[in-house]
Amino acid sequence: MDREIDQLVREELRGRSPYGAPQLAVPVRLNTNENPYPVPAPVVAQVAEAVAAELAGLNRYPDRDAVALRTDLADYLGHGLTADQVWAANGSNEVQQQLLQVFGGPGRTALGFTPSYSMHPLLAAGTGTTWVDGQRGEQFDLTAEATAAQVREHQPAVVFLCSPNNPTGTALPLPVVSAVLAAAPGIVVVDEAYAEFARPGTASALTLLPEHRRLVVTRTMSKAFGFAGGRLGYLAADPAVVAAVQLVRLPYHLSALTQAAARAVLAHAPALLASVTALKEQRDRLVTELRARGLAVADSDANFVLFGGLGEQQPVWRALVDRGVLVRDVGIAGWLRVSAGTPAETDAFLTALDDVLKEQR
Fold this sequence. Notes:
alpha/beta; seven-stranded mixed sheet; three-stranded antiparallel sheet; 15% strand
């Protein structure tokens, strides 16, 4: 950054790098947890029709409260939710930023548990919220007792929990969420961006909403729905939380085109979510194959796998790129993260990894 301008930047933002993963021109890109399957042609046609119907009215502002979209999202989530318990924005990142604008800010603290989603500390910095790095166990786990103790120690205005967690893929037992809610003085956010990929028996924090007014569950349409380019995230919470978030939402923050496209996609949820089964199969295949190679692998309920035992991870990452495969270096010494892709992409990754491991030995 230009030195003169850098001196004008808020102190807590100086020296930081924007969030983002490398996007390199390689044949196999398994570093951003995208859904590799394109939107089916019949759904594309319905989305195009829905968007086209809005074009003649673009001279008018969209529904600033996105009531129809929020109704559809509530219907999709189930659990007896209604539109007044749901809020939507341009990706779950914007939803979480709005939560920090309302419940965080100068003089307040947000607590997360490292390693976790690296955008959360950036959102905290951007809203002037003090960030505290909580700690996980050696297996990237969180226990109810240890997690609640950290909450009591720091007394955060906002707690971020991720289930499944990014980058580890580990799901969070509901007793941990309940323990945090009992200890926390403020809002508890459970980021469930990858919830649709969870293994059978993995419960959602949505089941706890009726008992806890300070609980917020955030979701996204980017992953399971293959709607990453559409940028639509949402939350479920008590109506009072939803009303509070609207205090900071920008006027007409969701375009009419985004709302129309998202509603058309939601109307075809079963067809789109069919790809989730295929991706879960590839995720489980990755876990099995990586462990068979003697590598450490974190249990995953997401559409990616964190694997370790690599020594220095950066040379391995570079060697994979040289073989046309891009995975993610998430900054954990000795570990890399690979997204679940198509069967052919999994084949390519495993072949490249075998070459790299053979060279190391």
